[in-house]
Design goal:
Blueprint (H helix, E strand, L loop, with lengths): L1 H21 L11 H12 L4 E5 L1 H4 L14 H4 L7 H6 L1 H19 L5 H12 L3 E6 L5 H5 L4 E3 L2 E8 L5 E3 H11 L20 H5 L13 E5 L8 H13 L2 E5 L6 H12 L3 E5 L12 E3 L3 H8 L1
Parallel strand pairs: 1-2, 1-7, 2-3, 7-8, 8-9
Antiparallel strand pairs: 4-5, 4-6
Length: 306
């Protein structure tokens, strides 16, 4: 009996320690109030079809940092600069550097799991039939892992790799196995995690790294994500626009809307007089043009409503 109680206590301590570790990238925020819960519940109850727009602020609760949060965001903690699209295209050493760091970071990044927010959105879509589509700025695949069906990945997915020459698509896990074969000297273990799967590694390790090439045509391989300086494909933009028009409400979760690709969704919804609710810690680009803003942690409120 005593041994059982000791084991249970030890297990609870491990769970609490793990949860604290995952939440270390969540910025400080106010506690959710019952009034906040009722506001969000009424918004959802009054909506027939909701377009859910998500950002890095929901993945921080799965242990993946965002870029811009005060104190805990990637920009606040490091001098890290995301890969630029044109640099990736032009320079082989930039591609070598990117793939070497991504190879090492892939293990911990790909093991991240959906949290209560992702599952709540899935319930709202699949069980309640309230969601027209989930538009996510995240490339971490967590909505699909949670079971959501109609997901538009605005900035692509780190789980797909595309050949820039023949346009063949490959599974990122397959590319990882191929990289292991050609880079036997590389250690693929890391405790670091970033929004794009990138990590810091020594320069000498980068210099000896062999980037992947397309198995079909030997062309340049690139993760199927929108790098900084690149544009969201026009057909994807149009798909989002059509979904906004077909929806009567827009629920924004965990994004400051700093990038225009997401902010223009708000502008369209305002122009079409849709109901809009934003749940986010801190200010967003849309605060002055929307009627309902709830400044709390998404994980504290969304599961209570969905």
């Amino acid at each position: 009996m005593v041994k059982t109680l000791i084991f249970q206590c030890f297990h609870l301590i491990k769970i609490r320690k793990y949860s604290t570790e995952l939440l270390k990238f969540v910025p400080k925020c106010s506690e959710v109030s019952e009034a906040d819960v009722q506001l969000l519940r009424k918004f959802i109850d009054d909506s027939r079809k909701i377009l859910v727009l998500t950002g890095a602020g929901i993945s921080t609760e799965s242990g993946i940092p965002d870029y811009r949060s005060e104190e805990v965001g990637l920009y606040a903690r490091t001098n890290h600069k995301p890969i630029q699209y044109q640099e990736f295209l032009k320079y082989s050493h930039i591609r070598q550097r990117y793939w070497a760091r991504n190879f090492v970071g892939w293990g911990i990044f790909s093991k991240r799991q959906p949290n209560a927010i992702h599952f709540s959105i899935r319930n709202l879509e699949c069980d309640l039939g309230k969601v027209s589509a989930v538009v996510t700025q995240n490339v971490d695949n967590l909505h699909f892992k949670a079971g959501s069906q109609n997901v538009i990945e605005l900035h692509g997915s780190a789980y797909r790799v595309i050949c820039l020459k023949c346009k063949s698509i490959y599974n990122r896990h397959y590319i990882q196995e191929e990289l292991k074969k050609t880079n036997l000297h590389m250690c693929e273990e890391s405790t670091m995690v970033r929004p794009d799967g990138d990590v810091d590694i020594p320069q000498d390790a980068i210099q000896g790294f062999k980037p992947p090439v397309c198995p079909s045509c030997s062309g340049i391989l690139k993760p199927d994500i929108i790098f900084f300086g690149d544009n969201v494909p026009k057909e994807r933009v149009q798909e989002v626009r059509n979904t906004v028009t077909k929806s009567d409400s827009l629920l924004v979760l965990g994004t400051s809307l700093s990038v225009f690709s997401s902010y223009r969704i708000i502008l369209q919804a305002v122009e079409e007089k849709k109901n809009i609710c934003v749940v986010n810690i801190g200010r967003t680009r849309a605060d002055d043009i929307i009627d309902l803003k709830i400044s709390v942690r998404c994980g504290d409120i969304v599961p209570k409503v969905c």
